[in-house]
Design a protein that fits this description.
mainly alpha, 9 helices
Length: 198
């Protein structure tokens, strides 16, 4: 049997965990099920991550990094704040449509953390606030830091709400209409704010 490098094996476990968590929830996603899904020995999973909690953190971090990378590739810097906020919201929800298992697993992990360890839940949430904050700071004329912080949290709240609706109803056409409404609201708010500042 050929040796599989640790980093390759780690990614196999992360991919398998996403599928199992999306299907069975965090509590139902035992390390044994995840190892079976990955087609790897349970001992290898424990070697790579030591604990289930470490694996959950790695999954969430991987999903956040995936979104960060996609936004960096798809949302050009130097645009207006409104344009960046609209694209961040749209691209994040596009990813939710394109990768339903990852979308569901992410929510399941956050809810599990919120029930079991508030500090971890906050750290997970802050990962996404930081992603949005980075994007909004790249605007042509960025807002002051405190306003970027508030806007990043509002964009994340919109993403979370629309994401939950997608999970509940599964209707992509309805979600796209709701995205249009949310982006129009962001544009109206930021346009009004810009006129007040001028």
């Amino acid at each position: 049997m050929a040796h599989i490098p640790t980093e390759v094996r780690r990614q196999q476990f992360i991919d398998a965990a996403i599928e199992v968590i999306a299907r069975d929830g965090v509590d139902g996603a035992t390390t044994r099920k995840i190892a079976q899904e990955a087609g790897a020995p349970l001992a290898t999973l424990h070697y790579c991550f030591q604990t289930k909690e470490n694996l959950l953190w790695a999954v969430f971090e991987y999903l956040a990094d995936t979104i960060r990378t996609e936004l960096e590739e798809r949302v050009p810097q130097g645009q207006s704040t409104a344009s960046i906020a609209e694209q961040v919201l749209t691209e994040t929800l596009r990813a939710a449509i394109d990768r339903p298992s990852a979308n569901r697993a992410q929510l399941e992990i956050w809810l599990w953390a919120e029930r079991n360890d508030q500090e971890v839940a906050l750290r997970l949430y802050d990962m996404y606030v930081e992603v949005w904050r980075e994007q909004l700071k790249a605007a042509k004329a960025p807002l002051p830091d405190d306003e970027i912080e508030s806007l990043a949290r509002v964009v994340l709240a919109l993403v979370d709400g629309l994401n939950n609706q997608l999970i509940a109803h599964g209707d992509e056409k309805l979600l796209r209409r709701e995205i249009d409404t949310a982006t129009a609201m962001l544009a109206a708010y930021l346009g009004r704010r810009r006129r007040r500042s001028a």
